[in-house]
């Protein structure tokens, strides 16, 4: 019977450091190869036994996962933020590769989800739209900063529109400042046009997926938010419960406790003391956190099925910011429920015992 080989790959732009351990943890091979598909496959074909491979999430992880997933017995794309043991002791490519192999053999790696190729187009179009939105916001900020540097009040959206552009340029006394503002306006016009095209492509691609129509039944999940959910989450069944989904979205509460048990009259009992809450988890998907928090902010200030839920929290004495966070968690839980069950949104989900 072939033995198991544990392979750690420390991946870089042009090279990959490889460490191979046997079932007993003994180093049987260590080398450096080029970051090319043929070179990687030649390495694997030259190894006997059942191959277990790991590498860290990064720039090449999606490409490398698709290359290897059907060619090895087990493939783990691990979360580099949780590989604290790699930071201890000496640091080099060869050392990191061996430590990855050792962590894989010990079962101490935290996997990163890879697996749904059907939504890859939505994911990439969503990232393109998000990047163009960020670039547009950046140019708008630079324009206002330019006006503020000359003590020109520029609140609102009027400084951006083409209708009043000449009027705003005339407020800049120096020719250098005017030319600088003109270049910023040119960038803004181009980015806004590209952003509109990216939004159109994203919505069209997302319509090909049946879950989009289902997600849009949830109030305040419009076409863009639904598309970002499909692209980022890919499948709701990767989350066993709403608490796992909250953690992925950055809406989970981190708690701390110590010395939880003690002996009372010779009997082991759990101590009755409050759990110390440290706030929301830091390791999360930032796009999804912004999505649900922005949806909660909109829902809390508009008429709809979520407004009474928010107002009841305020009546109970909860601060507005905590009430919006609770509402964001509720929207996330309902979204996961709707997506998993394949059922449209129902206001009954807002009852305490539901979702």
Residue runs with pLDDT of under 50 for 5 or more positions: none
The radius of gyration is 26 Å
Order of strands in the sheet with most strands:
3-2-1-4-5
| Large-scale geometry | globular
- Strand tally: 9
Order of helices and strands: EEEHEHEHHHHHHHEEEEHHH
What structural class results from the helix and strand content?
alpha/beta
The largest sheet, given as strand count, sense and whether it forms a barrel, is: 5 strands, mixed
The end-to-end span amounts to 49 Å
Q: In DSSP terms, counting alpha (H) and pi (I) runs of 4 or more, how many helices?
A: 12
Summarize the structure.
The protein has helices at 37-45, 61-68, 93-106, 120-148, 165-170, 175-206, 210-215, 223-233, 242-248, 286-300, 306-315, 320-341; strands at 4-11, 15-21, 27-34, 50-56, 74-78, 253-256, 261-264, 267-270, 276-280. It is an alpha/beta fold.
Question: What are the defining features of this structure?
Answer:
alpha/beta, 9 strands, two-stranded antiparallel ribbon, five-stranded mixed β-sheet, single chain, 355 residues, 12 helices
